[in-house]
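Hi everyone,

Forwarding the result from last night's run.
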Amino acid sequence: MNTRTKVLLAVVVIVVVVAGSVSYVLLASGSPSSPPSLPPGTATCPSFSPGAAAANWTTYHQNPTRDGVEPTPNITSVHSEWPGPTTLDGQVYAEPLVCGNSVFVATEDASVYAINATSGATLWRTHLGTPMSSSSLPCGDISPTSGITGTPVIDVATGTLYAVAFLSSGEHVLFGLNILNGSVKSQVVVDAAGADPMVEQQRGALTLANGYVYVVYGGLDGDCGQYHGWVVGAPASGTGGLVSYQVPTHREGGIWGTAGTGVAANGSLYVSTGNGDSTTSFDYGDSVIELSPTLNVVGYFAPSDWAQLNSADTDLGSVAPTVLPNGDVFQIGKGGVGYLLSGTNLGGIGGQIANTSVCNGAYGGTAHAGFSVFVPCLDGVFDVLANATNLSVAWQTTGFDAGSPIVTGNVVWSVDISNGKLLGFNITNGQERFSFALGSVEHFISPSAGPGALYVGAADQLYAFTLS
């Protein structure tokens, strides 16, 4: 804990409210005898407006098409925003979210925090229950607990943050939290009927669209058990039943890319899958699937070599689909081959518009500025130009294991997973401009941005940087 945080916590007023196993703590540095205009521990999250929409980063990579772009003037210097990182109660795999004066971050200890964006002080923390112990699972690589892995999503209109926690009860529970103070507004189990929660991992980001909160599932590291890829939709209103889609593999076919889904202008969802276990009959493994708002199949794409990809565990779904400005779709996976797909007809088996070899394997979530797609690969970040009829690589960085990139102004940001560094590259040519040591980081971690600021989780800490 940094010195400034210690001083702030020395003068807090703490209120604990217990509702079952859920507790939340409100913290503020103001005097109880001179209350501020908002209650202690209150976060703010203003509603969207056409002129201020960019001020909110309320879902993975900023919006449902996962652009990952914060429009800002050209950046000339970067420095730490806070005296030091804010220490949390568990590891951070989810991307931080930004709204108003607050940064919201979830941990593997099944907690959600609201952090003051200017000072790094904790506004509130809600602990959603006892997280699943990794020792209780048949396989997996998240340790010692697996609480909240997928990035939450904020509904600004209702002031609700949605997060899925994997609890020791063996259930994945979707919680709706009051964005102002962290109190629990709703909760519902979002494990699909017939699914085994102990071998399903909720890693992909949540998606808010069509009146639903969509939750995706894949398998644990090691591919143990009879798991499938699933998409589950829970009504955001809290009333009504779940809708669900199961990838029709005999087993496997997980939906595990960190971006979760891409959303088309008509409300359709695009998901990509990992390998199925068939090499003879097509089973929707290693595919891109278009789903209706109620999760019926609209169309699909699979590479011509889907059987070989299935056999070699070369998941097409290590990256979620990228929805381009014209509605077309870009897809890349472990094999490092990029595919350009028609948004009006995904094309079935071998039906791509174009494809090209990009890199040695892609993992995480892309960002895109117009038709320039920034791809995180094992050997660096690649700028892929997705024209109407072809794909080409504009530039690539020097080799490093790249975390999911985002864009702020003229800089593309990515975390070097192996060396724990936050790196910034010139958007026009890929030349490195900035580098900051973070220490240990988790796989596929992604920064997020607010006006003039950048936020990134590293192990159990949250860092903030000012962009000038």
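Helices lie at 3-9, 306-312.

Cheers,
N.
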